[in-house]
Amino acid sequence: xxxxxxxxxxxxxxxxxxxxxxxxxxxxxxVLLSVSAGIQASAFRLATSSxxxxxxxxxxxxxxxxxxxxxxxxxxLASEIPKADPNVAxxxxxxxxxxxxxxxxxxxxxxxxxxxxxVPSGWQPVSGTSIGWIPDDNGGLEVxxxxxxxxxxxxxxxxxxxxxxxxxxxxxLLLNSALAGLLHxxxxxxxxxxxxxxxxxxxxxxxxxxxxxxxxxxxxGPFWFLxxxxxxxxxxxxxxxxxGSATPSTDYASLVLIHLTDPTTSSHxxxxxxxxxxxxxxxxxxxxLSAVQHVVNLYRTFGTLVxxxxxxxxxxxxxxxLLMSVEDRTRELAVLRAIGYSxxxxxxFVLEEAALLAAMGLLVGLPAGAVGAYLLNRFLSRLVxxxxxxxxxxxxxxxVLLQGILLVLAIGLxxxxxxxxxxxxxxxxxxxxxx
Length: 435
Hints:
This protein is α+β, with helices and mostly antiparallel strands. The chain has 13 helices and 10 strands.
């Protein structure tokens, strides 16, 4: 080892640059691995703490679908699913839709003229995601925490009125802090919602005339279901009125979230409910987590390809440096062979050099990777607003560290192959006779 260290020490600049190159490649891969591990761990933590044990969608729907086909008879499912399976503690039908929201300031500005000249530049409705649900059927499910105001308080879903959709309308909704911030509203403010966006300022009066006015009763924190979305939450029947599905023959939902009394039997409950409701596909929490894993694997594949480029460059660079070191010491190595050193010992010298360079690269790469992962997490956390407490984009854990160490060892071993072959093929007699 002393001989190998001495050969590296003779050219400190080359040694330092090689170690830095290995370290940068290692830190890049460590950051990519830590992001993959962080997103996976955060997604799994959110899913397992949500209280959702089974998820029901329209038949033949994939969890990776960008949208979910309408699921009719939503209100009936809230009572029929627990009847079909006594282990179901609650079944909550959710309607998920994209809406356009506007505040009272924009409403007032749109009324100042008929051609939109009274609307300040840049003022326009904002897009957001909406969830319609029956608050009383969310037992056992984690729902957004209230920051200001109050929750939807009327029992059940009053407008549904036993299937007639002629009951009282509360005109209430909750906004999460992200959407409330975009609209610049507080509790008790009025907002207007519609499925369509206005074509421009001149179309605003007509848009408000056809939109539905709601009163903001409360502001909530982030929601695990759509952690970074601008989100509005309604009574199911009132959101159905906006989307045009508030009739007994439609009564659409997008999903049914099911909380079980005993979640350890979720596979059995899945089979029971699938037999009772053939038009619905039921997924266990394991199925949901597998879908999350699939998405993470896609990212990991991309990250691996990017990392492989860095690894390949670092390996070629290290191999070049080691080969130059061997070429600089051909006479020394020939002398060692002449006085009795075996080929294996000569090859061991080159391998030791590679190991020393790899170790120095590791000393550079591990701290750089940890700092890079920390800074990236801070940047993404500030960039993506509305994330739940405890959500992190990176996880610089033991698994990531072990993968980094194995990576550095692989770089050292791969880079030493050609230099070792060159060292073993040095013609001893010719080197010793050379002037």
